[in-house]
Write a structure and sequence with these properties.
Layout (H helix, E strand, L loop, with lengths): L1 E6 L9 E6 L6 E2 L4 E6 L4 E5 L4 E6 L6 E2 L4 E7 L2 H7 L37 E8 L3 H12 L4 E5 L6 H6 L1 H18 L15 H25 L3 E11 L2 E8 L4 E16 L3 E3 L11 E2 L1 H5 L7 E5 L3 H13 L2 E5 L11 H11 L3 E5 L2 E9 L2 E8 L10 E3 L1 E4 L3 E3 L32 E3 L10 H20 L2 H4 L10 E3 L4 E6 L2 H7 L3 E7 L4 H6 L5 E7 L10 E8 L2 H14 L3 H5 L10 H11 L11
Helix pairs in contact: 2-9, 4-5, 4-7
């Protein structure tokens, strides 16, 4: 038998991800496309499939390893090495579909080579562009295309536009996090001579406030859709051929189907169908077990709450419930919370938030759970061999926050000939085009990072390319998504934000960087605010080729309003700024934002707001 190495494929914007599950072992016989390992980023998990079949000879990774594109997963024994080698060749670009280059997910299966069957029925509605899904990416694509003169139909299953983000995600969670932050802030005022009584919590009124915030935003979207003459159709959309989608209409506050369908014909389509929360199969169907949507419903405040998964979504919701009175436990398979961010950033957050938690169970997995009259009884196990498992615990509320999975396999994409991976991701090129030239995809469904702000920029690219092709506008048709950095933010207290290359990634990849770190203990504004626990750091290229004037590669901030400031670091990365560019940009004083300029001065060696560096 010949041997070949199976490697990690293109994982898009992520330089490295963590192995959280091994799905095969030496001696196993595997088939092509069979899942080998599960890896996790800060926002979601994904399975890496086999590119060929054979017998597993040797595993080259173990739980907890960091892997990147090209990392060897295993050595495969195969009797057909020449054919296998030929099968690994990358697809070449064609005139109608540029080479797949920006996919943020494992490589999808090859597109269906045969022509997809044509729909023989009649369309109820025809358009230049159909957008499937009205989240931030979907409505942005629809509005941009309409502004460019296209006739647009926007399909959304929810009663209002905005998708998961506006209805049951980003926006309602931030409304509650703001309230929690204000409650936590006034508790510290006693030390300043300002005394407030303990708050009286009206959970119904708080829930109404959250709903009002959502309603104001979604109502505004509906008005803007009408202004742009975008036709909205409510329901579940599914392809029936490459140019038609059938929509099962829905009604009411939820997603109840009416039994009525509408068929929409289109010249181009943008798939913006998003993702859904991952549910662990052994968790009981019980109202005390919720995902992020259920947690945002805010039915009541539990005494004891378990967060499954130490990522951003779970920690944000834990912050809200903790401030309202819940005691928290969190369980995470890996060796730290908030994976993806540098450990020094997370350390500051964890020190500040330690009083919220009774137990932080790292290197631990959840293996079973059952509903009892007293609560949800959860059993744990060590994630690594030889580890010690915590005793079973009973909780009033269990939040499943172990990641999100894309909805690529819920829209009958195969009937349009669109290639979808086993995990539900759709591979696209730098113009957001799928393997079917007139069908594009954006947002969570094309892969990591699963963030609304990334989806919006992808949406504009897809809409402009489509308008350019329909209107023979070469400038629009040449649009591409080529962002150098996509920022990530944990809206906890303190906030944690980062963009570009992290310090951990630089060490793992052997990239020499020059770091400028400015502690907020030297920031006049942070001290005046009573919140000087944070810091700002910037990383610059310090390779020999940079000659001491390297461009910024990444940066991170931990502290209040970190998410509001990270945009300046992203702009610096996009513009290729160096430490002098940032340091000599005059920032207003006293502000938290000036810590970015001061961190650049530290890297440059010209900062006068800190003691002199040792020589």
């Amino acid at each position: 038998m010949a041997q070949m190495e199976i490697k990690v494929p293109d994982i898009g914007d992520f330089d490295e991800v963590t192995v959280i599950e091994l799905m095969v072992k030496p001696g196993d016989t595997i088939a092509p496309e069979q899942s080998l390992i599960t890896v996790e980023s800060d926002k979601a998990s994904m399975e890496i499939p086999a590119s060929h079949g054979g017998v597993v000879g040797e595993l080259k990774v173990k739980l907890g390893d960091k892997v990147a594109q090209g990392s060897v997963i295993l050595v495969l024994e195969t009797s057909d090495a020449p054919a296998a080698a030929e099968a690994t060749a990358q697809p070449k670009a064609t005139a109608s579909a540029p080479q797949m280059a920006a996919a943020a997910n494992p490589v999808a299966k090859n597109a269906v080579s045969a022509a997809a069957p044509a729909y023989a029925g009649k369309s109820d509605l025809d358009c230049d562009l159909l957008v499937l899904g009205a989240g931030p990416g979907g409505y942005s694509a629809a509005f941009r295309a309409a502004d460019l003169g296209l006739k647009v139909v926007l399909v959304e299953r929810y009663a209002s536009l905005g998708g998961v983000c506006l209805n049951v995600g980003c926006i309602p969670s931030k409304a509650l996090l703001h309230v929690a932050a204000m409650m936590d802030e006034v508790r510290h005022f006693t030390d300043l001579g300002i005394h407030y009584p303990d708050p009286l919590i009206d959970i119904d009124k708080l829930r109404a406030h959250k709903d009002k915030v959502v309603g104001k935003l979604t109502g505004g979207l509906a008005a803007m859709a009408k202004m742009r003459k975008v036709t909205t159709v409510r329901g579940y959309g599914a392809f029936v051929d490459p140019h038609h989608v059938v929509v099962e209409e829905t009604t009411g506050d939820g997603q109840e189907k009416t039994g009525t369908t509408r068929t929409i014909g289109f010249r181009h389509c943008i798939i913006a169908a998003g993702s859904q929360a991952v549910r662990l199969p052994f968790m009981p169907a019980d109202p005390r077990v919720v995902d992020s949507t259920g947690a945002l419903a805010l039915r009541e405040v539990p005494k004891r709450m378990l967060i499954l998964g130490g990522g951003i979504i779970g920690l944000e919701m834990g912050t809200v419930y903790s401030t309202l009175g819940a005691r928290l436990d969190v369980v995470e398979m890996l060796d730290g919370l908030m994976q993806g961010a540098d450990r020094d950033l997370v350390k500051v957050w964890q020190k500040m938030n330690a009083p919220r938690f009774d137990n932080i169970m790292l290197n631990t997995k959840t293996v079973s759970a059952k509903a009892t009259p007293a609560g949800i009884e959860v059993t744990f196990a060590a994630a690594q061999e030889g580890g010690k498992a915590p005793e079973p615990q009973v909780y009033d509320l269990v939040l499943q926050a172990v990641g999100r999975s894309p909805n690529g396999r819920k829209i009958a994409a195969d009937k349009a000939g669109v290639a979808v991976s086993d995990r539900g991701f759709i591979t696209v090129d730098v113009q957001m085009r799928t393997n079917v030239p007139h069908i594009f995809a954006i947002g969570d469904i094309v892969g990591q990072p699963m963030l609304a702000h990334k989806a919006v920029h992808e949406a504009h690219v897809a809409a402009e390319v489509i308008a350019g092709e329909q209107q023979a506008n070469k400038e629009l048709a040449s649009a591409a998504f080529n962002a150098r950095a996509v920022p990530s933010v944990a809206y906890t207290d303190p906030e944690v934000a980062w963009a570009g290359l992290t310090e951990d990634q630089a060490k793992a990849q052997g990239i020499k960087v020059r770091k400028g770190l400015f502690p907020w203990s030297a920031s006049g504004r942070a001290i005046a605010n009573g919140r000087d626990e944070g810091f700002t750091k910037l990383l610059f290229d310090d390779s020999p080729d940079a000659h001491g004037h390297g461009k910024i590669l990444g940066g991170g901030i931990v502290g209040t309003h970190a998410g509001d400031m990270i945009g300046e670091i992203v702009l610096a990365i996009e513009m290729g700024a160096d430490a002098v560019d940032i340091g000599k940009t005059i920032h207003p004083h006293p502000t938290l934002g000036e810590s970015i300029g001061l961190a650049a001065e530290v890297a440059h060696g010209s900062c006068t707001d800190l003691p002199p560096a040792r020589r």
